[in-house]
């Protein structure tokens, strides 16, 4: 079968399509034929060798996101031919999704949304779970105020929509004026590019997607979550009774099922910037690296 692998770290030209052995699913696994995947920042960092310790051994198959068709559901109850999505924690498991066939634990797999194509659905797993799981940790509820730093990015844009679907009042800090329209159109109240426009200690929770560290914005006794692992830990706010975390995404089929419901209800709209074929994987990465994306870069198998 075909797989996208690297045997050394470097620029996108280290990405190659190889003939790899088919996976042998275990008793608790689901075997999936890949239809589409998408590129995430972690894929880029892994390719260039920026992860450091914990990187799977070379050669490795990359990829976290997956949308495809069940080949063998094993004991999961999923039937051959069903449309599914999944996220593989490639760094910890070594199971990359950029391959024709992928075997993943059943608990990491969920039925795909009906309202969108599988190519669109491939944009959801990693950023969607990052948003969903971090919002759960923040424990912000209907009627409370949430600030999202980076509310127009892949994770932040989904977090904004999920939070609004939960009845949460959301303000948005975005990087560029061009992103303000997206945040307003998806329900943010205050939208700004200026962190100094944020009122101090006025938010029950802050969701920081890029290491903004707008720590003065969170209220005493609130919560502050970052997903920007490369930016380091959140400053200690315990003197103000603020709990902090740098949240790490985990495989979660149950969470994906909840995200699928939001997509099918129209509460969660997915964004694609561009689509490439498998043999255009280097060009897909080049597009990702150029930035200025209005959605995710997807790859079709």
From TrEMBL:
Pfam families: ADH_N (PF08240), ADH_zinc_N_2 (PF13602)
SMART domains (alphabetical): PKS_ER
Gene Ontology MF annotations: NADPH binding; oxidoreductase activity, acting on NAD(P)H
Sorted UniProt keywords: NADP, Oxidoreductase
Domain (Enoyl reductase (ER)) ranges: 10-299
Signal peptide as annotated in the record: none
The name this protein goes by in its record: NADP-dependent oxidoreductase
Species name: Streptomyces scabichelini
């Amino acid at each position: 079968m075909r797989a996208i692998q690297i045997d050394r770290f470097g620029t996108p030209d280290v990405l190659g399509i190889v003939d790899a052995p088919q996976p042998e699913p275990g008793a608790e696994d689901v075997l999936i034929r890949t239809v589409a995947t998408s590129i995430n920042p972690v894929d880029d960092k892994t390719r260039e060798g920026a992860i450091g310790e914990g990187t799977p051994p070379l050669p490795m198959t990359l990829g976290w996101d997956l949308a495809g068709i069940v080949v063998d559901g094993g004991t999961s109850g999923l039937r051959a031919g069903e449309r599914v999505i999944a996220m593989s924690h490639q760094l910890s498991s070594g199971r990359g999704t950029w391959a024709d066939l992928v075997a993943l634990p059943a608990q990491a797999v969920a039925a795909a949304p009906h309202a969108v194509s599988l190519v669109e659905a491939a944009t959801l797993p990693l950023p969607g779970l990052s948003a969903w799981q971090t919002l759960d940790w923040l424990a912000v509820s209907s009627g409370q105020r949430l600030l999202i730093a980076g509310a127009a990015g892949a994770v932040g844009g989904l977090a904004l929509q999920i939070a609004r679907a939960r009845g949460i009042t959301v303000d948005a800090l975005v990087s560029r004026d061009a992103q303000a329209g997206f945040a307003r159109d998806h329900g943010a109240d205050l939208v700004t590019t200026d962190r100094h426009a944020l009122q101090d200690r006025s938010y029950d929770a802050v969701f920081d997607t890029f290491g903004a560290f707008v720590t003065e914005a969170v209220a005493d006794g609130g919560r502050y979550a970052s997903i920007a692992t490369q930016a380091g830990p959140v400053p200690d706010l315990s003197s103000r009774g603020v709990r902090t975390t740098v949240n790490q995404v985990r495989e979660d089929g149950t969470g994906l099922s909840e995200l699928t419901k939001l997509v099918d209800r129209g509460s969660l709209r997915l964004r694609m910037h561009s689509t490439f074929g498998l043999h255009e994987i280097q060009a897909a990465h080049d597009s990702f690296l150029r930035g200025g994306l209005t959605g995710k870069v997807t790859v079709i198998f």
